[in-house]
Structure formats: C-alpha cells, structure tokens
Amino acid sequence: MSPPAPHLVDEILEEIFLRLPTPQALARTACASPSFRRIVTQRSFLRRFRKLHPPPLLGFVTAGEGGFAPDQEPHPSAPIARALADAADFTYSFVPDLSADGGSFTAWSPCDIRDGRVLLESPPRFLRTYASTFSTTLLAVCDPLSRRYVLLPHIPVDLYQQGNREKRLYHFQHRLAPTGEDDEDETSFRVICWVHFKDKMVVIVFSSASGQWSVAATPSWSSLGLVNLSWRGPKNRFKNSCGCFYWTDRWKGDMIVMDTRTMEFSTANILDSDHMQVMNLPEQSKCTSAVVVPTEGAFERFTVVYSPNGSFHLYHTTQQSNDGSCQLKVVVPLPRGSRYYTVCATDGFVFLQGIPDQAQSGDLIIRISRDLHQLLDLFSLEVKTSQLKKVCGPAPVSKCLHSYFGFPPSMSKPSL
C-alpha cells in the first residue's frame, strides 16, 4: 500500500491539532517538530483554532513601571505569561521616543490593546486645550513581541471640526477597532477616535490599508434621544468582543452602542432602581463599584457589595433589553482580607482590584499612588461560568490598565 499524499497527512494532522484542549498544548506541539510548527503557524489554521479556543488571559498592560503585569501561579496561564514577559518589550524602546532630551511630547503611554497590538499615545507637553491636544497627539500601533510599529499621521483639523472651528471640543478617546472574523489580512488594523462636542459626536477612523483618516459617522445627541448630557458627554466604560463599543452617561442610565462593523448607533437604558431592588441589600450594606457587560438581548451587571461584617460579594444581575426586567443570577463571595473594586470588563471577563486590609488607612487615597502599588491584587471573573481567579499580585496601580489576551510567543507571527 502506498503512503498517503503529503497534503492528506497535513489535513489529518490539522484536524488532530484543532482538537487539542488548550493553546498551551498547541504551543508544545509546535515545538515538537518543524513539520508540526509549519502546520500550526499557518494563518488559516490559527483562524480556525482561535474560533474554537479563545486566546488565554496572560496579564495586564499598564502605564506603570515595567509596563506588563503577567499572570502568576497558580493561574494556569502563568508559564506562558512569563515567557511573553521575557520575550516582549513593554517599555516600547523600539518606537522612536520623541520625549527624549526634553522634547515637546511626553513619553509613549498605552491607551488600548487588542489582538496583541498596543495603541500608544504621546500628547504634547505644553498645549492646554482639548482641541490642540487632540489634533497634535501622536499615535502609534505596535507589537511588543515582534517589535514592529506604525506611526499614525496627525488627524486633520477640518476632518473633525467639520469646517467649523468655533465648535468647542469637550472630550476625545482613541481605541483599536475589532477585526472582522472574515478578514483575511491579519496584518491590517483600524484605530477609531471619538470626538465629543456639545451637540454631537464625530467618529474618525484610521485604516492601515489606506494609511489615512476618514470620517465614519457624525450622530447628534438629539438623534439618539439624549438630552441634558453631562458637559463632557458620555464616558467609555468598557469594550466588548462582539464588535461594539459602549458609553454610559455619567449621571443617567442611558447607554450608547456603536457597531464597528456598520458604524451604526443605538441607545439603551440601564435601570438602576430595579437593579438595587433585585439585590435586596440590607440598609447597612453598600456598593463600592459596578460594571455593566452587554450581551445578546440583555445587560449583565456586576456589583461589588460590602457588608458590615467585613465580607465582600460580587452580585451578578441581568436586565433584559426588551422589557427591562431585572433578575439576580448569582452571588460570588470574594476572598476575605481585601477591599474590592471593579476595574473593567472585556472579552467575556470582569476584572477586579483587591486592596489588602493591611493597606487600609486614613490617608489611603494620598498614599496609594506613592507606595501602595506593591500591595494590590488583580482578579478575573469569567462571565459565563462565574469562576473567580486571582490573575496577579502584587500588581502596579495605574490609571491605564488593559487586559492582554494572546498566544505563546512560539506561535506568534509579526502582526504589523
């Protein structure tokens, strides 16, 4: 009997490798032989594998010292996280530093991360207005693993001012846009900027394919049914893996949803009163923080609740978007010995920060930015399973904290 054709052998091996239980197992397979590595590093195979096995959480990218807080034991991704920390450059030394020697720009700082790419910003040192800061802020997209980067061009003023230079810019944000599932070119990326004016929002998109910025949408607040917004407009609370971005009004329950695939906007309302009634908290208990995760046809809210006996619990409630009904799904007890706060939610996880009791003091707020960065722990809760895991700690305190999901370095291809 003649041996099977080489392409049939590859197809059989590919189907076997797709059934490996974890990315860690696939990484070990890739190291077993050159032929195995050739199969598992093909883009078509990686695309199929990622649909079946979402990339593991490896840690957090921060603006603090070191730039990356990897998973620590006993977290199952700790070995891969250590390998990533050793192989990647989260100081971004490979990106031209325009702040060196007293330059007119500040050092690069991460403002978003997606698919292993980091969006960096370098605002000017001396400009004081939002409009001047926005129009001159430098942006770059980089891959700390392959040490490749792309410097983005400045955003033309007329593009976001729409020809009217008298309009006051109240707020702006930069984010990496989700890539489409059917996007064959994995080296391409998009950056989205939202510019908030008093009467509307202007959405500007940079495409690496064209190398240019363009206006994608200009919805007015009135067209979305929103009135009397706070002066800086809605605030971006979280991002979601389903290809949408979300904002909430600072003082109301209004939520704005933007679908990055169609650039269409919609609104929803989060009912705080119903949420509190479902929780049925005793009067002496109090909420320390909360985060909302939109899902298919509902809003999942995660609220940290503190009780007088010193215990903390995470309440998971769901609100149906069609009728507004609110139900309690599960209450997750949090480990004793720390004070907890929600940090953010993304890619099916809710992240919490724990401050150990020994760090509590009357001058905590004053000291936290100076000498308590060694005392903080970071936790993840998987939304589907309600499984709580300690990711790392002590971890640095930073206003900029972004979860890093990815594959082992041996499987990573240059992303830019």
TrEMBL record:
SUPFAM superfamilies: F-box domain. This is F-box domain-containing protein. The gene is LOC100836579. It holds the Pfam family F-box. Residues 8-49 form the F-box domain.
